[in-house]
Design goal:
The protein is mostly helical. It is 77% helix and 0% strand. It comes from Paludibacterium paludis.
Length: 198
């Protein structure tokens, strides 16, 4: 599957799922004073961006160190994305928004809400599969983080404007698209692996 700048951006937005994370984000910031929230959003998004950028730049070295092939990463990435997509379509209902004391720092907003294992695996996969297109991947990640930051900045207004049902419906729709992407990635990895055996 040939990944374009636009499809990489869409993929990253689907995985970070800022709209679906609005309720969790609002819950995590309940203990933070309203005047501090904007600064917290900027800080947490910057931390998440730095973490994902690190994975993007040092992905190749990580794969070499662990003796992992591109095919195994594509298959693993497809499986992870498929599981994430299933959770988006069929949420367990057991809300994992824990009540936090004080201001959240790194956990749970930057990691794992934004820069979760699936996002880390995806940027690593993009960078290792086509390292010559690194500027495109950095641009896609930057655009994704900009969208995430804006969604979180206006999270309360968005939740009121869209309503819980609309947010849930959008998350299910994003989960459906992500399911198709994960299957495509999985099939691509398996096909490439079989081709290399012969």
């Amino acid at each position: 599957m040939q990944t374009s700048f636009l499809s990489a951006t869409v993929l990253l937005v689907l995985i970070t799922d800022p709209l679906g994370n609005i309720p969790l984000f609002i819950s995590a910031l309940k203990q933070v004073k309203p005047e501090r929230r904007r600064k917290v959003v900027y800080r947490e998004c910057l931390i998440a961006f730095t973490v994902l950028l690190t994975f993007m730049f040092f992905g190749r070295e990580f794969l070499d160190l662990m003796h992992l092939t591109d095919e195994s990463m594509r298959i693993a990435g497809g499986v992870i994305l498929f599981l994430i997509a299933l959770k988006m379509i069929f949420p367990s209902g057991a809300g994992h928004a824990e009540k936090l004391q004080g201001e959240p720092f790194i956990v749970p907003i930057a990691i794992p809400l934004i820069a979760g294992p699936s996002a880390m695996a995806t940027v690593l996969l993009l960078a290792t599969r086509e390292p010559g297109r690194m500027p495109e991947w950095i641009g896609a990640l930057s655009l994704c983080m900009l969208i995430t930051t804006l969604v979180f900045l206006f999270s309360v207004k968005l939740q009121k404007w869209l309503g819980e049902q609309a947010i849930t419906a959008l998350e299910r729709l994003m989960g459906l698209v992500l399911t198709a992407i994960s299957i495509e990635m999985l099939l691509g990895g398996i096909t490439s692996y079989i081709r290399n055996i012969h």
